[in-house]
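Annex B. Sample input.
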Amino acid sequence: MVTGSESSNSNSSGGWGTARGLVTKTLVLLGGALLLKRLTKSTTRWDHARLVARSLSGEKLSSEQASRDPDNYFNIRMITCPAADMVDGSKVLYFEQAFRRTPQKPFRQRFYMVKPCSKELKCDVELSSYAIRDVEEYKNFCDRPKDQRPLPEEVIGDIAEHLTTIYLRRCDRGKRCLYEGSTPPGGFPNSWNGASYCTSELSVLKSNEIHSWDRGYDDDGSQVWGPREGPYEFKPAASSSSNDMFYSPLNLPIQQSMEKRIEGSFVLQD
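Annex B, continued. Sample output.
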């Protein structure tokens, strides 16, 4: 026989057990909802721009490609680093290229501006290149200590004319690249070496490798500068061999010969 006291205790215990079960179930549901939200959170437009900016940054070399195909590709050092942030959040990067043997003498210097594509465009990231007002002031910018570089406000003031814009889109799953894109079909005006316009293609690979293909065309659509076989392949410097034959002093005549042949190539100016 159950006494009144025992019945009361039993009801109290059962009520607490039910409440505890409800609390546990609620916590599980909330935890699951938070986890699901985290897993399904979409990448924002600015996330894409930041990822492209990070992937472009650093020292990259075309050494491996030049050793495979020295007749068509030069051993070039490409280095890019953050230079300033615009008011709208766009990232300004400093970019330069030089022969691997003479990194202190860049032959190409640019500012890159990286930002999300506007919503009406079918792309994820806009990568625009700009001329620099006084390139001498920026030589080896990325190699200098930060206190010896032009200040961000000076960088913004030294952004000169717009040169090109590449519209990048996320690569489909399963592809080696993260982003890829190009200039519009008609390219951008360019008058160097008999060209009337130029085009650019760019791929950002998962290994922080950058493939870049710049070409110039005349009024008839004939290519007048730039590599013909395919894009330059720039790999992070850490993966490059220190025994690169093109960098060896024993092969100095080879490099000097290649530098002479670069006259008429895309890399001096465009």
